[in-house]
Amino acid sequence: MSERNRPHILIPSPPITEGFTPIGAGGREPRPFTGNRGSHGRRLKREFEQAWPEDQQEEGTTITFESFPGLQLALESLDPQGSGEQPELLSVSTREVDGAAVQVATVFIPFGKKAYFLQRLEQYVATATDDKAKNAKLVEGIRTIRRATIRELWTDPDELFPSFLGDSRWWEVWLRKRDGREQQRLSEYAAAHQLRTSDHYLGFNDRTVVLLKATANQLAETFEALDDIAELRQPHEVSSFLTELPASEQREWVEDLRSRLEVAGPDAPVVCVLDTGVQDAHPLLSDSLDGTDLHTADPAWAVRPIEAHGTEMAGLALYRDLSAALTSRVPIRLSHRLESVKILPDRGENDGELYGAVTARAVDRPEISAVNRSRVFMLAVTAPVTGGAADAGKPSSWSAAVDALAFGRAIDDTDPKLTYLDRDEVRRPRLFVVSAGNIRDLRPGDDHLARSDTEPVEEPAQAWNALTVGAYSPHDDMAAAPSDFAGWVPVAPRGELAPTSRTSVILDRKKWPFKPEVVADGGNAAVAPNATDIDTPPNLALLTTRLQRTGEGYFTTTRDTSAATAQVASIAAEIMAAYPTLRPETVRAMIVHSAEWTEAMRSQIDAVSSRKSEIGALLRRYGMGVPNATRATSSAIDALTLVAESQIHPFERDGSGEPKLCEMNLHELPWPAQQLEALGSANVRLRVTLSYFVEPNPSNRGWSGRYAYPSHGLRFTTKRAVESVAAFRERINKRARDDSWLSTTSRPEGGWLFGADQQQAPGSLHTDIWTGTAADLASKGAIAVYPVAGWWKRRPKLDQSELGVDYSLVVSIESPDVEVDLWTPVMQQITPVVEIDT
User: Sorting pLDDT into bands at 50, 70 and 90, what band is 317?
Assistant: First the structure.
């Protein structure tokens, strides 16, 4: 393949927009009810009456509806959302009974709305003998009805609910938004009953999140006294940081590198390190980190760091490979700078704190200081996940805050204790690069890949809009190891996943995105000769800058997914420097698009290449592989990358107010068709990446329909070699068909590595690779982007489709076996001809 010395081609022309109706796929018939309808309805009516308090004193009553095993409740019928005050679905959880899932929904019923359910139950009983009983969808999924307790409001796994109800502990309390005074009511109640609340709280569209320290019994009393509590979860506890490891401490290394260093100017992009603070006095950081760019999430904290982790991350975020910079003898030109926000106090962790609010305040500080600066936010602080496989990947207040910030929500902190993610301000999207989190209790006898496959990514790495980074091990050579590691054996073969890296293999693939999207160097571990100990020799770790204390040197070593995250953040800033006008969504896409699997990863993928589900599992282990800064910023003559940025309006409403999908965009790309046709049967590769950001809906109310987590979804599909553009439109868009259209069977197109399972999977980033002949690729230069459902569609008062949503499409063509100029003919198609007057 030729040298990558050409810029990527940015497509200036917009796509063709047309009205869109998807091709229906049909639905599954509901399971028929096999019991006695009349008896079932009468029993539920009796349970509902018993659950209602005899002497109604409060503004309403909270009732729990439980499904039959294996069935789902009609959640939207439990949450009518009509005019005036209506019953409100608060939360939904799932538990297992005899191997089958049971859905538990908790509903607040306002005073005066008792009849809403009673009438439906009575109508069902009255029509029980008819072929179609009224309200059957609502009633026949319900197994039992009872008065709600705090146990039903708990949406984390059952086993995490406190077993000792008298122990005081922190609870994450989600309040339903009613009149704006819900947090005040909770605070006043807590103060009156000697309970503690967190100093800060977090606001979403219809939920406010606050921490409350209480026993389960005290919380139950709070629930009985207040009608505001919608959901309970377990708070986050941040992970412990890496211990410092020994490294060479030679002053002359520092002086030599500084003599060859050209730092970026004050207007350059920055990596904003959200961590324990960064030591700006370090000689390898000082020229790239101004004192005015040091911030703290809490103004009361000291700016200077005490903990080392942030300074270690800064060295990698700035230099990416500090070891290579030190050992080379050529000039080093930096294209970006650093910022720092301390998000943890020097004592180690925030006591009773919401990390979503901390993160939002941390983002706010540098944006106020330098509002127009291009930046990538790097977050390598994580919290252990809660629960087992069934709840892995579930959004949290922290991950949802990251998603809202990435989507571009403004931070309204008029109230210094409330961090509200404001929907009224103009969106300003942000790029977050987040660590996948580490396995901290490595065991010498582990099968490290099997272990990583069962250890899900940590908080907040499940955020849909974040670029999540795992770690791999590029080195397994012990020749340079210190003598006290003689005989030790590396855990991971060269190029494999790092032993500590977490994955999303066990996450529900129908609900949650694949994570990590990419992996980077996270070092390796080694096992002692007697297999009783496991550690990381310094030769298998990464050299970086050390937090300097009296008498200490300039360097240390680090490892794991935090180190990998810093390197990827550095690549993101380099892309911003090379293409300063690109959106954050595009920068994320270009990083993922540049990634390639190592030989070790590729061998695993090739072994299951015919089995899409197993390929999907490997995608959730490795992501798309290791990103490359050169590939991310440069094309080659025979490796062309096209970048298109556009906007789409996902939803619209007809005259009756019924929601429907709105439009699709057809990208007819400048394409080297003649050059590809000339190559004939030569093997070529097409790669497509679609990236966009979604607005989160983090309350746990079933994760579908109007309670779905993403505001909208987008998908791409490509024209096939055998069809015209008109036939392509008709195949995917019902509105493009006329009365003369004839139905045909459309089979999935071959040649795609992941195929429809991944292209249609959840997430806000979709990517796939097609391999085939150049002749076939010559006529595939059209790509459609279209919307799929999200919560905006079913919640018209909150739908912002009319404002449009941004997306980025990155498309590359590579001819690995034949050297041919694909770049020049495409560039000529988009470059206007300049006529010279004579």
Answer: very high
